[in-house]
Amino acid sequence: MAILTNTGTVYNLGGDTGVGRQNREDLMDMITNISPTETPFLSTIGKSKANNVYHEWLTHELATAVTTTVVEGNVASFTTPTTLTRVVNMCQINEKTIAVSETQDKVNKAGMKSEMAYRVTLDIKEMKRDLELAMFQNTAFVTGGATTARALKGVAGFATTSSVTTAVTAANINAMLQTLWDNGCDPEVMYVNGAMKRAVSDLAQNTATSYNWVMKADSKKLATAVDVWAGDFGVQRIVPAHQMGTQSIAALELQHWKHATLRPLKVQDLAKTGDNMTKLINMESTLEARAGTYSGAYYTWTG
User: Fold this and answer.
1) Are 291 and 60 within 8 A, CB to CB?
2) If DSSP states are collapsed to H, E and C, what string results for the chain?
């Protein structure tokens, strides 16, 4: 097809994209953020207070059960009492900084009124996500120093841990839960990443036990997800968490885990250094595992 010679079009009046020179841009007044911001562990556990960067708490175990009995008229004898254990974790500082020119904050922008306000909201979400990632790590705490930042010990550092060299099986999960039960733990949740969520759901299809998926013909719905694990050792919700390690499961009794805060999240203005606006967002906190190895397990599989 041909067009009339010297016809004004968006290509010769507005440029290749139709924008520029005399044509206005078509930019929607909204911003879509597609990054995951959920923090299912950090948002679920209880709160606690830290009063020093070296944060400690006490744990105590009952003596091992015995079959010993005594004769009638026995003269009392005394055994050494079980001792308490002091457990420690370090408070770490999570921080975000923002610098915006006065001009950028003033000009007419798409999707926001204030560049600074938008950046603050975004960075707070990022910082919470950073903290959840740290809380899942299999690391020892770092005491820090003049040139080394303090770091907290994560769930996998406190909990019972194991590494399996095969793909996860139902027997593996049941063995993990039995280990917890033997330790006196009653987990109500298993945190998994996306790949492990699918792997657990696939167990119902691949196992020799031949489970059946639920299909509702009237609503044309086929349910192929395993969201609750009900077995010999209680019932656990299976919760996907973006910051979980690959091919790992953290089975936890949540009442024993706390987020202990030394300095709560704070947004503060920094001194001006010129024609700009600057802010500092930070918090100082750590993770409490009040029952240590009795409060959860962190197992990893190769496939």
Assistant:
1) no
2) CCCCCCCCCHHHHCCCCCCECCECCCCCCCCCCCCCCCCCCCCCCEEEECCCCEEEEEECCCCCCCCCCCCCCCCCCCCCCCCCEEEEEECEEEEEEEEEEHHHHHCCCCCCCCHHHHHHHHHHHHHHHHHHHHHHCCCCCECCCCCCCCECCCHHHHCEEEEECCCCCHHHHHHHHHHHHHHCCCCCEEEECHHHHHHHHHHHHHCCCCCCCEEECCCCEEECCCCEEEECCEEEEEEECCCCCCCEEEEECHHHEEEEEEEEEEEEECCCCCCEEEEEEEEEEEEEECCHHHCEEEEEECC
Cβ count near 111 (within 10 Å): 11
161-213: pLDDT as tens digits: 999 899 999 999 999 999 999 988 999 999 999 999 999 988 877 555 555 55
What integer pLDDT is reported at residue 5 of this predicted model? 72
Q: For the segment 141-166, what is each residue's pLDDT rounded down to a tens digit?
A: 999 999 999 999 999 999 999 998 99
Q: Is the pLDDT of residue 91 over 90?
A: yes
132 touches 154 (CB < 8 A): no
Between the alpha carbon of residue 150 and those of residues 23, 129, 147, 246, the distances in Å are: 54, 18, 10, 25
Strand 189-192 and strand 234-240: the pairing is parallel
In the chain, what percentage of residues exceed pLDDT 70?
Answer: 83
Angle (CA) 215 217 219, round 5°: 100
Q: For residue 187, which of 147, 150, 231, 154 has the smallest C-alpha distance?
A: 231
The pLDDT of residue 111 is: 82
